[in-house]
Amino acid sequence: MPHTSKTEAPLTVDEPIIEGRYVELGGYTVAFETHKMETDPAPLFRGLPDDRCQCPHWGVVVSGKVVYRYADHEETYVAGDAYYGAPGHLPLMFPDTELIEFSPTDALTATMAVVSANIAAAKAG
Q1: Is residue 22 helix, strand or coil?
Q2: 3-state DSSP helix/strand/coil % of the chain, to nearest 5
Q3: pLDDT of residue 123
Q4: What highest taxon heads this organism's lineage (predicted)?
Q5: CA 46/CA 28 separation, integer angstroms
Q6: Average pLDDT of 1-25?
Q7: Residue 69: enclosing H or E segment and its boundaries?
Q8: DSSP code of 80?
Q9: CA distances from residue 86 to 36, 66, 67, 96 in whole angstroms, order as listed
């Protein structure tokens, strides 16, 4: 049976705002993320339908807090919560938040292509 752990997952993102380790298992990406500061990444989702993340996520908040904002409501998850983030959300990240999240790899890849293009455009601009 495939498995991974935070210590086995390669460090893929190491930025001032986030540390991320990602592994693909059976069509799903397992993410071990540590958010270092409060971040509203909403501008990074511009270009996706409704300018919102369209990838579903299932996760566990290890520490800290995350808010998923939808067009008509918000959902707040804190340490110890298991959650489902439906398509159409915008995350709001808080400092010292650690998440373990599972996302369909194809949907995540499509979303991250747009996010990466927006990051590149912001750096170039």
Answers
A1: strand
A2: 20, 45, 30
A3: 86
A4: Bacteria
A5: 24
A6: 93
A7: strand 65-69
A8: T
A9: 24, 14, 12, 23
